[in-house]
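re the bet — no i am not wrong, look at it urself. input seq straight from the record:
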Amino acid sequence: MSRKYLGPVQGGCERRYIPSDPYNLNAAVAHTTGRTQSMAETLLHIAYIKSASMVPPTARLSSTGAQFQDFRGGNGFVMAHRAIMAINLNGRNIATVPNQPSQARLREILKAPQARTDPLTPVANYADRLLEIAAEKPVLECYQRVFDAQKPGRPVEINLVVDETYKMIDILHGCYDQAAEKHSSNLKKRGFVEHKITDGPMRFDTFGPATGDVSRIIDDLTIDGPQSLLVQDRMEQTKIGLFKGNPTEFVYFPPDYLGVSRIVSSTSPPSTVNRDKIEEACEDLSAASQGSSTSVSSGPPSAQPTGEAGQSGSGESSG
């Protein structure tokens, strides 16, 4: 899979910039909010593609590493993708499913949430990778449920999108904890000893062999989780950063970063839990599809508040 750098995309950064403070946890706030938004948009896009009958109703989803990226990283920082993975439908990235010349804008809309990045330090990107590994399978299952439940040729089911978006947020919430646990395991591999401070949290000390263990840990992070050439580039930058980094930063920053991200993921819902925003997004997707010579040439359906096809959905999602 080739690397495709796009430049600014809808909903992303307007330009590449260097983090002003490498270990400012405010970066976690912005990046996590952007992650939830991007992944929720992809969930809606999956429902729309099925609604518009662009793929067979029995199509299967699979996860992959990033195929698109807005900006390249720089010296000492990584342009980290907000979305934890990209999605293929029957082996094709969802942005390539609409393949008519007249659907160029639709393809750009579908690429955007996959391509958005934020500048992060290698150690923060290391924490992000732990999340990607933990969340890949359960989030993919969530996306597949959306695809299976959406009826082809019917308007996007708003209740389905809202309910599954909240479920996805809950999944991510738990995966931040799993990522932090994986970090603790990695520290022990590097020779750290965990001990309990009186009336305080668990802490680590006794720094062990660094260089070889960092390489082994990065190898594990590269083998596990979503794969692509863009991911390989990002992990190579992360590896270099961890080799050069301060061991104390490697120990204490990742769990703090993941902890902040966990809180933010629960308190900053994406726009796609708002029914009006879903309808607006579906109208934009439909407009971008006009003129297609596929089975949706007359214009794909928009959204309707249904829980089951053909039935009016009056219940609001909890959350």
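see?? Residues 50 and 285 are 13 Å apart (CA to CA). told u. also The chain is about 50% helix and 10% strand. so pay up
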